[in-house]
Design goal:
Layout: H1 3-18, E1 20-26, E2 31-35, H2 41-44, H3 49-53, H4 60-68, H5 87-94, H6 100-103, E3 108-112, E4 126-130, E5 135-146, E6 152-163, H7 169-172, E7 180-191, E8 196-201, H8 206-219, E9 222-223, H9 227-240, E10 245-246, E11 249-250
Parallel strand pairs: 2-6, 7-9, 9-10
Antiparallel strand pairs: 1-2, 1-7, 3-4, 3-7, 4-5, 5-6, 7-8, 10-11
Helix pairs in contact: 8-9
Amino acid sequence: MNIMDVQSCANFYQTNYLETFYLVTTYNGRSFALIGEKENFPHLMGIEKNVYKSNGYRRPYNLYKDILSRKQISQHIIPNNISQTSKMYKKVNNFEKSTNIFWENKGPLTINYNPLLNSFKLRVDLLISDITSGYMLGWTKNNNIQINAEINLKKYCISSWIDESNGTIQNKEKYFPSQEIELIRYVFAFNKFSELIKQKEYKYSSDEKKNILILIERNNVNLLVDTNNLRYYVDVAKNEGIHCKINGIQY
């Protein structure tokens, strides 16, 4: 693996996070926008701030711009041969799978992440997780998009990601304990002209609801759903004898 692989990730980031944004709605009736920022790319590739700063880049955006345009980059920042044992190798190797979490998720959960409730600390406000694969995307709240004087839409920017596809259940769920969780219902992708280019609706079978509630029981999680969907999850919890918290009430 070498700089060409990082450049491929830069192209992927440009297409899928800078020229594309996502609107997500949950079964709790919440909606938010997801997008990327140019400054975040080096961090997503595992390139440390002190490394690129000490090698001529004061701003991460300038490094991203040079990677994207195929300019020569110091080997102190990106080695000719990226070691398989390095953090950068893992980040570069799996990054182009990241948008699968929108379209091929086997358990699309959003965690309203509060680091004060967890011994594992992430600097994110929102975590989208595939509970089957263990792939996670972390997002930080950027600002509100003002639709009009009364309506604001929350915007989050991708800031980190974790791949626990080869990890244990404990590693796949290490950010879940004691958090509040919502279930993704719709994902809409728009291009830079705000044209809808892709969409997905997630529906959950009784078995999938059961597995989600078992995860909630195991991690002492609070599931948030709207009143229209509340009774379905309560029925599954009672019928299957699952001790779980839904909308703050223990069943």
